[in-house]
User: Fold these one by one.
Assistant:
Number 1:
Amino acid sequence: MSMRILLVEDETDLVSTLEYNLKREGYQTRSALTGSAALDLLAKDPLPDLVLLDLMLPDMSGLDICRQVRSDGRTKKLPVLMLTAKGEEIDRVVGFELGADDYVVKPFSVRELLLRIRALLRRAHPESGPREEDLCFGPLRVDLPGHRVWLDDRELRLTALEFKLLTTLMERRGRVQSREVLLSDVWGIEAEVTTRTVDTHVKRLREKLGQAGSYIETMRGIGYRFKSDPD
């Protein structure tokens, strides 16, 4: 199952950037622009698997939110990663004393933030968090070494050829792949069979992927392309 992340941040541009990058990594997101909205979401099920928490919110301090998260039996074990423009040592110390698991100072590298999120989730959910070798895209998660594919929490049954076709398209997402290239790279042949073979397998793969089948786009007269963005 893809991990759920609650993003508590009042800068709308930053919210959009983080939502986009988190979804590309396979995470589900919910966002709150105020502390009170965040607490309302935390009072409902399902709980997020991690909270990205800005300290400077318009209605209350992120430190107060962290304190309430740690004092509530439902949420006290939730990983909390604080985002803040305050980089002084005393600010980090106070954050950690209140129960924050990690602390990132603005401006930050999105790539670094994603790595820190992955590390926290791996620590909190060692069996279910996305792993370094997993290929994630929206609700799809592919275990490359294990040759297994999940759509949300449901494992899909793909043949070896369908698995190779899917991973080839995913790894080249955003780039058009001609039928001839797919025949060569997936089937290992140089157009010795009709390119209709590709069409037939793509159709079967789409059917098995269900809602995620729309990620594979047909480029009329050329071939196929895996979307660059799950949205």
Number 2:
Amino acid sequence: MALIAVFFVMVNAQQLPPNRGDLTVAEFAQNYNYYNKLLNLGNSYLDKNGEWAEKAPSAGSYTIELGYIEKPEFSFTTENGYVTGLSFVVEIENNDRWLIPYDKYIVPASLAFSGAQRGMGLFSKAPMRIAKRIKDNIFQGFRFTDAGIAFACDVEYSGYIDTMTFLMIPEENATETYFSLNFSMNILK
């Protein structure tokens, strides 16, 4: 019975990022990279400045992208050297490929930020709630608060068919396509 309890605690401990409390950009990046690896979301990672870098794929491994996605450029809001918010905007015009959702960037960023907040404990259900709300509404957009953070995502598109699954497909006769996603999260004051 004690072994089951230890296992349960260990599994829940994985939901917490390595850095807690107020985060510098470098600490946010470490948290982001932790979740990116935990969720197995690819070889991209954030350097200490919050900018994208690439790891070489492991020998014998391959990454297959089913559609098109641009890496977002994170913009950090800081006060006294600590991150109080993060945002990014993506705009894609006249793309003839399938679009895959941005949850592969939004979920680890949201968990990296929210998991560091005071009050997030070992048995908090907030990480699962946050991830589910994002994944369930990724192409429709969302607005909600959780763990002391306001999350917002506005999505606009034309010339695409929302398959209600994991991609958007260009309409067969679309002469133009447009996709815009504006994501932000900010600590509530």
Number 3:
Amino acid sequence: MILLLFGGSFDPVHNGHIAIWRAAVTALQPAKSLLIPVGNPWQKGRMPIASAAHRMAMLRLAFPEAQVDQRELRREGPTYTVDTLWELARAYPDYTRYWLIGGDSYAQLDTWHEAKTLATLATFAVVRRAGAALSRPSGNFCAREIECAPPAISSTEIRTLFQQASGADRAAAVEASTRLREMVPASVYDYIQQQQLYR
């Protein structure tokens, strides 16, 4: 049985995340999928903008068919993927674990905390853009390539657009809102507006 794991800040979750996850589900046919919002991401050097509760709510709206796992949100101190994988190995001993990751992050995998141990705990489902070469990290990491063409969206851009959408410049606000509706699911857009996030 396959366990698909998808971690990230999801601040906010967007259509690029959904496209990547769907491509992995199609390729791997997992018996179970877990979405793992990060707690305190040590490599980013800052906490997510939206609270853990808001990010979980948005994930549940965007992925109604998957389970949101809260273990990293409950953990104190910096969040390390290796700790999460150790816990998941104990919780799901009969599953083959696949950690979903983008090609850019995969290329830097050897810089992650306890990278050598990571290689023993999971296979990495690496999203590769169609026709693009995959850069490999140094080290013995098992990888399964997932071909996908996700939309070029970043959470940073989305947060900036939500600021513009709530600004005094009416024309800029309308344009920002139009772009945002193409970047995030309608349910997530409505939630962010209702909760007044990223303003």
Number 4:
Amino acid sequence: MVNLDRLSGGLSWIQLWFSSREKIILSIRFATMICGAVLFAGLPAMVRAEIDPLFTDPPRDTAHPARMEVVHIPSHDARMNGVLYLAAGAGPHPTLVFFHGLPGNEQNLDLAQGVRRLGWNVLTLHYRGSWGSSGTYSYSHLVEDGVAALEFVRDTGTASQFGIDPRRIVLVGYSTGGFVAVNAAASAGGVAGLVLISATDDAAEAETARRSPESWRKFVAENYSDSMETLTGCTPEGLANELLAHGNVWSFAAAVPALKTVPVFVITADDGFAPEGEALAHSVQAAGDTVRVIHMGTDHAYSDHRIALQRAVADWLRAAAN
């Protein structure tokens, strides 16, 4: 027969052993967390800056915490909806202005968060006539909106309110946002850098497409027909024809003379747009400025290279800030 008293005693001993073991493990984990926090807080600022911002949150600054602010950016007859991701610390901070593509389904907000952990402010926005921003959407307005966003972060009142260093503004453009960033940098001047992620030379594409009716129909259908649900006051044909009317002013080639003193970082992917970014990079480099180009074997949304994309942008900005 089974001795129930002995079995019960044995089970009690086992339970006690596991309970004690769990307490020891929890104590070790707790002590490790405390020691890690103390060590991190005690690191010199220069060393803390080298801790990976992609995976490590910075220490909380209770006097000037990181935060998010909704802003409305004036652009001619309307206001653009925007969000400022503000870095911890009193500032002033270098600031990145991020321009999304057409229509803007990929917001790249993981990049905004990563860059903020580096100590940068980030402004994201929706152009006039897109995603609820007032006004109408057009390429002419995109060019104006890019300049308006740059003027907004440079404004004395804005810079003072949000801890922005107006001398250190970097523009980042993704897809058609690259068209916006290039033209804003060329028109307004004085930016500290330009990052282009799968940037599209929309005006040059339209000029190439006009060579045959078939290529033109394909250009309109592939670029605009499936992207109108979030845009106001425009048509696919109207957007395409607008590019033809201004191609000699809005193309990447036209912007090169104004970019020859701007550090440029070009990132390309396997999406068919790499030649456009590479052509701009080669032209700017030939004009005498510093250009870096990297290629990633991924799709237009960088779906399986998000960490790699964050790493590339963060590393380049770190170098640009020095």
